[in-house]
Amino acid sequence: MLDYLKDFPISAEFLPARFRALLEPIGIQPSLKVDVGSFTEHDLYGPTSEIVLMAMAVVPDDVAPPPVLYTEQGLVAYSVPELGEKGTRKIFTPSINGHDYIVASWGSGLFSTYNLAEKVWMALGLTPRCIGNEQQRIIYDDPKLPEFAVAEGEISSQFYFKASRNVRWTMSNEYLRKYLWLRGARGVRQFYYQATLPDSAFLKGLVGDQKVLVLGDEEKWFNGDLRKDEEGNGYLLQVWATVEAVSCQLSPTPSAEKLIWPGMEKPVTAHTARNDMFGEAVYLSDRFLEKYEQNSLYDSTPAGQAKLWYNNPSYSGQWAFSGCLRVGRNLIRVPIRELYTGVPTRELLHAHSNAVLPEVAEAFDKAEEHVVSLTDRFAHQLLALGRNLSALAGSVGIAKAGQDIVGLSDDQVKNEGWWSYPYLARLAHVAPLEMTQREFLSRCKSIHEVYQRIPDDFLRKLLQAAGVPRDKLVKLKSLKLLEALVNVLTLLDAQEDPLDAFSNENEPEGWNNRNSRIAMLFVASDLRNAYAHDSSGAEVMVRLQDQGFDTASLSQGHGLALDVVFKGVIEALIAINHPLQRIIARA
After folding, report:
1. Whose CA is closest to 425, among 287, 570, 291, 311?
2. Whose CA is closest to 234, among 199, 194, 195?
3. pLDDT tens profile 530-561
4. Interior CA angle at 478 toward 477 and 479, to 5°?
5. Quick check: 334 and 437 in contact, CB under 8 A?
6. CA-wise closest residue to 389 among 371, 404, 410, 369
7. 286-296: string of b/e by CB count within 10 Å (b at 16+)?
8. How many other CB atoms sit within 10 Å of the CB of residue 299?
9. CA-based angle 18:22:26, to the nearest 5?
10. 108-152, pLDDT tens digit by residue?
11. What is the pTM assigned to this prediction?
């Protein structure tokens, strides 16, 4: 490939950065964004003016240098055909001097419009989305992986003395090279460049006494001129050029072939993995799931029950992991054969980056409860609480469905799973041991807000029916009301009273006592307040210490503290449900 920058008669140090970039070849790095179309103006009548009108042609990759190309204002097509006899333009194939293009562009001097060429998006399987209002941009994505912003640019521009907006189209180097490879072609830019260069002794000596210094000629890859700017701002450079920018060579792509997985002696290939008949498995950190949990484009819904829970991330029916079994608090065990079945290379590499050494995995307690199991127990205790409180309310003439009490439907959980409730699904997201204090407080806030849904007025009515004077309940809020109800129920259960004994005209003994069995509900509430007020919650952590938690472990993260809170809240719900269930059973 010709060294265009070296072949140009003006030294690179005196050329603007944009012009140098237009003359330099594009590297093969897949992450590069390549300019494939342009209609840009900058400081049009000022001392730093710059204009770029550019289109990229798809030119066959043969030995010969690319032909000299021409366009009108950097557009593939200009104006419209005259309306003549029928079939005058029976074959209408817009092109850049007979070559295909990357961006389809058309203009009339007043208006111009742009889009990714049909052949490009169809060959690569790209789908568009639009950004409207003043931006008027179109963005193409690859929905299979997914890969976003593969190509993008402005849709249109109007021109009246100056352009209404700059138009600049870019494309992923990886995808551009895939298309060129498919076509056996090179990406060749045809452009017009104009800029004002600052005055310098070099340029003055180059132009000399001439008014205009002619650069190149129409037979070369470039032609143009350099002249003294009429406004005295320096020198005006104008260049029409044809430059081979992108070679017919694929970008290097990461490969999952011959990966060495922890605990395996030999490199693994797709072939050996899919033929693994001995069920070899690897352990992953459950932080592998965070990528999918934190992006709504993916689905990482847990599935299972009791002690067997799977988390198999998937994307829109395009691909899915399988066999990702949760083991212990923060591990995922997956057969190597399943890992190599049906997922893109980059997802497999993501899994590999989260692989855990066997000796590290062995140090984990495989029986330790994970956050999905905790959320499952939490959800089912809430459902039980809704059913039990509904039955209790019915016994004193208050009609209230369990769903209206706790906000969860038995039918929905049975048919769609508790994860169909977004706030419960978020509770089941990865809870690393290294969890930050802020993340810990946020999760405690979310836990509190679930059981906080129980209506205060409903609890007051129940307590009034149990004999608690109304005036003593007016100022009490949800948790104090719930604590009072637990005290009443505990007394009835201790006396082995039936359900109809709940209704009472006399004030129950000890109804307003503190109850340590539901203390964690209050701790979670205080932690929620610490989050809301952006405090450290240090004073609340002392309460956790009272519950038997070693606060010294917080130096390693707040994950274990979350376990204590979550389990404590579940035990508090059990402390309400069990006596209530026994009372109802004695009805």
Report:
1. 311
2. 199
3. 888 877 667 777 777 877 788 877 888 999 99
4. 105
5. no
6. 404
7. bebbeebbeee
8. 14
9. 120
10. 988 999 999 999 999 999 999 999 877 789 999 999 889 999 999
11. 0.83
How far is it, in rounded angstroms, from Cα 341 to Cα 330?
A: 23
Question: Closest Cα partner for 445 from 427, 433, 459, 428?
Answer: 427
Beta-carbon contacts of residue 120 (< 8 Å; ≥ 6 apart): 102, 126, 151, 179
Name the one residue in this structure whose structure tokens are 């551009």. Answer: 176
**Cα of 554 vs its chain's centroid, Å:** 30
SS3 sequence of 379-397 = HHHHHHHHHHHHHHHHHCC
Per-residue DSSP letters for 186-228?
A: EEEEEEEEEEEEPP-HHHHHHHTT-SEEEEE-TTSSEEEEEEE
What is the rounded distance in angstroms from the CA atom of residue 35 to the CA atom of residue 21? 10
What is the distance between the alpha carbons of residues 99 and 581, in angstroms, rounded to a whole number?
79
- Give the residue ranges of DSSP H helices in 233-320: 270-274, 290-293
What is the rounded CA–CA span in Å between residue 252 and residue 262? 25
Other residues' Cβ atoms within 10 Å of the Cβ of residue 179: 22
Cβ neighbours for 223, distance < 8 A, ≥ 6 positions apart:
214, 215, 216, 217, 239, 240, 241
Exposed/middle/buried for residue 6 (C-beta within 10 Å: 0-12, 13-18, 19+)? exposed
